Amino acid sequence: MNHTTRTLNRSKQRDAIFNYIITHKTHPTADDIYNDIRKDFPNISLGTVYRNLTLLTELGSIKKLSYGDAAEHFDGDITPHNHFICNTCGSITDLQMENIDFVDEAASRNFDGKIAGHNIYFYGTCPSCLQNIHPEH
């Protein structure tokens, strides 16, 4: 019975982690998720969060974003899309834009291998930070 309970708890925790990611469009880190999930699962460990994030990523249920800061961020939107990273506050935003999959073909022109896809991150200043810099606009 203890084994069943452990499996059930693990599943509930995984479901909670997954639901957190798909409902938070902020592209949270494992620490962000852990700190919020602990409110409902006080006994959850950071290791459990990491293991479940790895599993969900391997299953293709979520995407892992690595763009140069020290942390990995997670995205519940697994459809192809691009991201904007604010150089000021570090926020990550999904960009609504036309499809730019032609970059795969452009990259293939002078490359003898096979391009399977791409990750493109755009950088700059988000609207909120711009407003703080230039409040009159």
Topology:
Layout: H1 2-23, H2 30-37, H3 46-58, E1 63-65, E2 73-75, E3 82-86, E4 92-95, H4 102-108, E5 121-124, H5 127-133
Parallel strand pairs: 3-5
Antiparallel strand pairs: 1-2, 3-4
Helix pairs in contact: 1-3, 2-3
Q: What is the compact description of this entry?
A:
With 137 residues, the chain is an alpha+beta fold. It has helices spanning 2-23, 30-37, 46-58, 102-108, 127-133; strands at residues 63-65, 73-75, 82-86, 92-95, 121-124.
Structural features, described:
The chain is α+β, with helices and mostly antiparallel strands. The chain contains five helices and five strands, in the order H-H-H-E-E-E-E-H-E-H. The chain has two domains: 78 residues, Arc Repressor Mutant, subunit A (Orthogonal Bundle), CATH 1.10.10; 58 residues, Dna Ligase, domain 1. The strands form two sheets. It has a three-stranded mixed sheet, with no helix packed on it. It has a two-stranded antiparallel sheet with strand order 1-2. Helix 1 crosses helix 3 and helix 2 crosses helix 3. It is flat and about 50 Å long. The termini are far apart. The relative contact order is 0.13.
